[in-house]
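Bit of a strange request maybe. I'm writing a small parser for structure token strings and I need a real example to test against, not something I typed by hand. Could someone generate the tokens for this chain?
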Amino acid sequence: MPDTSKLAGVKVMVIDDSNTIRKSAEIFLIQAGCQVVLAEDGFDALAKIADHNPDLIFCDIMMPRLDGYQACALIKKNVRFHKTPVIMLSSKDGLFDRARGRMVGSEEYLTKPFTKNSLLKMVAAHTLQRD
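Reply from user aminoacidic:
Good idea to test on real output. This should exercise your parser:
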């Protein structure tokens, strides 16, 4: 289990069109002391990102309107957020998806359904070393 004591106050955005995924991620993150911002799709996320300035973003790939690759590419093109780590979420665990995620700038890839441990490990890996 990662040391979650250092995650207190880390602001994490979770972008997913599945209410179940958003809720479970939110519960795991809040238990670790993180602040959580939820978004239902890429457009919702882009509207909220400037207001909340998250430290880390989890982004589902398969979403209506604006998919995860498009959302990630737009986030990474923004001067203010191009250094914000984006972790793609997907139920597909394919090489193509991973490669495409890297091409649009994502740092990592987490397969759904994820465990509390795997989610918090990702948060720790991408936020704690920036101190």
